[in-house]
């Protein structure tokens, strides 16, 4: 499963990042300026932010289907990008990019829901980090493959110029469109394997433990039934032997036999311990011999076979039918199973409604540990997205490198992030298996990640004397930042495994908001520095100081407010109780009416006796 998930993430990020390289030939053919290119590149994030929370809440109930829609929808929109651009121009492409952001917004929340359900806790860190590693592999692949397949120049004739002698194929299928069709076709190879993957429905990784509990308690119920039946049969046979005619005649004289005898009292039902369970609750796997011993019509067995006159027994019509004696054990079985069901949540009393999800979301925001998660995610993603977006511009402005060198220097940080994110997951799981507390592992790795990234950016601000040195500092900063995939990005699974999709969607929304704020802020700082007549290096130092401030504030907030305490079980129980309050009141009203009717029946039964 995890391998197919990583491939799906890889395909999604190919579709997402094609435009970053293809925008150059597209702009040459369509006549777009830098501002229009910025609108096109920014359109994806507006859709991406919009569906994080909604997609996360839906993914908690159908994670596989949500991921399928995300990958397939991205492939279809990617294939439609060239024709939409040629027919509708700039605004048509913006609409397609917003739609692609909408379908990809639920991707990572669905992955967290899948990990929380189907990955054991001892491997959750690496299972959560590997899809993020696939993210950067797809990003680097898009940077390298798109120029090779789609070309670098926009030698495309728009549809309006089709009558100038250019071929129909070149007009409607330009060279820059080939990567879109190629990566969309790759999704067709992934889809059969993913749809054919059986995840066991909505079962969780605790199924084995629940099965053991179920089997063990079933054996106890079966053993109790057999022991109860054996005890009752032995008691009845003992009474029959003691009260047989031969034994009575041997001990008593004829006169005594002919004299009136006191009526023996029949033990009440509550005095029998343990009682004989009723036939419908007997074990279905009883032997045929045990089934043959069942009483036939008109036959007396057990204590009712005594040679004593029958007493008038009043039928208990005035009270509801007493439940079988094995019900308490069965009730304990059901309660035990409900208590052990941690992933996925049992939503019998509180069904998945938007009102319930909204209440759950607001209830999540009442926890300080959740705000620690949201604030730290914002503080991390602000510098990360700013560096990823503006790093090529920094290297080009500061050192004026060629296009080939710029591509090489810009790709190294992403390679470091792909390796560091996978390593962080392995490191976190290893530390937990060594006996470290989970919260200590998360705090330690995240603090090292943010502080090291801040130091690397400080070196980038003052010690970057060449493009190679600047790239090394930038690679160290982004690689250190990626260590957080073994800490911050796994805390959702530690805190609320049954709400991992909703919680991660909320957290990732704050993450992308950090990028939306930081990217234009960098442009504003650079413009203000240029207006003030500052040198290029001095202008960029203010950008790096902003990134360092984000990291330092974020690490302090994380160490003070973070916690791995489970919040989902108590929250679900509280919301489920509130949701079922009306049903309980209706049920209590019906029960009161039944009790009144039973009292009337009791009075009529007493008068008949």
Automatic annotation (TrEMBL):
Gene3D superfamilies: MFS general substrate transporter like domains (1.20.1250.20). One of its GO terms (cellular component) is membrane. The keyword Transmembrane applies. GO terms for molecular function: symporter activity. Its main location: membrane. Residues 1-566 form the Major facilitator superfamily (MFS) profile domain. Keywords: Membrane, Symport, Transmembrane, Transmembrane helix, Transport. The keyword Cell cycle does not apply. Residues 225-247 have a biased composition (Polar residues). It is a multi-pass membrane protein. Residues 312-321, 335-345, 578-587 have a biased composition (Basic and acidic residues). InterPro entries: MFS, MFS_dom, MFS_Na/Anion_cotransporter, MFS_trans_sf. Residues 224-348, 578-609 are annotated as: Disordered. Pfam families: MFS_1 (PF07690). The chain crosses the membrane at residues 38-59, 66-84, 90-108, 129-149, 176-194, 370-391, 411-432, 444-462, 468-488, 500-522, 542-560. It is found in: Membrane. This is Major facilitator superfamily (MFS) profile domain-containing protein.
């Amino acid at each position: 499963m995890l391998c197919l998930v990583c491939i799906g993430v890889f395909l999604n990020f190919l579709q997402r990042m094609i435009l970053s390289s293809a925008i150059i030939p597209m702009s040459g053919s369509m006549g777009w300026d830098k501002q229009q290119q910025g609108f096109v590149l920014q359109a994806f994030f507006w859709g991406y932010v919009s569906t994080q929370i909604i997609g996360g809440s839906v993914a908690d109930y159908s994670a596989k289907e949500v991921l399928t829609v995300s990958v397939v929808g991205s492939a279809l929109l990617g294939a439609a990008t060239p024709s939409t651009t040629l027919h509708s121009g700039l605004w048509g492409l913006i609409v397609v990019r917003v739609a692609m952001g909408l379908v990809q917004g639920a991707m990572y929340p669905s992955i967290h829901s899948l990990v929380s359900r189907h990955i054991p806790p001892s491997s959750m860190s690496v299972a959560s980090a590997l899809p993020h590693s696939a993210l950067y592999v797809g990003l680097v692949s898009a940077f390298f493959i798109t120029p090779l397949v789609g070309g670098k120049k926009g030698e495309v004739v728009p549809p309006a110029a089709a009558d100038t002698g250019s071929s129909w194929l070149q007009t409607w299928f330009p060279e820059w469109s080939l990567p879109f069709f190629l990566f969309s076709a790759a999704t067709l190879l992934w889809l059969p394997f993913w749809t054919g993957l059986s995840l066991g429905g909505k079962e969780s990784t605790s199924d084995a433990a629940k099965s053991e509990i179920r089997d063990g308690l079933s054996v106890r119920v079966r053993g109790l039934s057999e022991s109860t039946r054996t005890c009752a049969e032995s008691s009845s046979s003992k009474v029959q032997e003691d009260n047989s005619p031969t034994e009575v005649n041997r001990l008593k004289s004829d006169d005594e036999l002919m004299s009136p005898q006191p009526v023996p009292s029949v033990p009440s039902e509550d005095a029998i311990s343990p009682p004989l369970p009723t036939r419908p609750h007997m074990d279905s796997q009883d032997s045929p011999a045990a089934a043959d011993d069942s009483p036939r019509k008109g036959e007396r067995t057990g204590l009712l076979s005594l040679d004593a006159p029958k007493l008038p027994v009043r039928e208990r019509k005035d009270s509801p039918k007493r439940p079988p004696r094995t019900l308490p054990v069965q009730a304990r079985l059901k309660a035990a199973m409900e208590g052990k069901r941690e992933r996925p949540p049992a939503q019998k009393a509180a069904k998945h409604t938007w009102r319930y999800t909204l209440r759950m979301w607001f209830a999540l925001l009442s926890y300080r540990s959740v705000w620690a998660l949201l604030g730290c995610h914002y503080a991390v993603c602000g510098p990360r997205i700013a560096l990823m977006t503006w790093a090529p511009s920094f290297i080009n402005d500061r050192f004026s490198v060629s296009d080939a060198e710029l591509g090489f220097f810009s790709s190294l940080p992403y390679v470091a992030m792909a390796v560091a994110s996978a390593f962080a997951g392995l490191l976190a799981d290893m530390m937990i298996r060594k006996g470290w507390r989970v919260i200590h592992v998360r705090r330690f790795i995240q603090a090292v990640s943010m502080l090291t990234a801040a130091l690397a950016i400080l070196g980038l601000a003052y010690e970057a004397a060449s493009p190679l040195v600047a790239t090394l500092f930038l690679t160290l900063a982004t690689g250190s930042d990626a260590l957080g995939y073994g800490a911050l990005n796994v805390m959702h699974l530690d805190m609320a495994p049954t709400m991992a999709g909703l919680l991660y969607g909320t957290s990732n929304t704050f993450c992308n908001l950090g990028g939306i704020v930081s990217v234009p802020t960098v442009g504003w700082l650079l413009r203000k520095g240029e207006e003030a007549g500052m040198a290029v290096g001095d202008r960029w130092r203010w950008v790096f100081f902003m990134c360092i401030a984000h990291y330092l504030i974020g690490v302090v907030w994380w160490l003070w407010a973070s916690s791995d305490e489970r919040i989902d079980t108590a929250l679900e129980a509280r919301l489920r109780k509130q949701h079922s309050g009306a049903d309980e009141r209706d049920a209590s009203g019906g029960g009161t009416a039944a009790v009144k009717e039973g009292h009337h029946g009791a009075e009529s039964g007493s008068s008949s006796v």
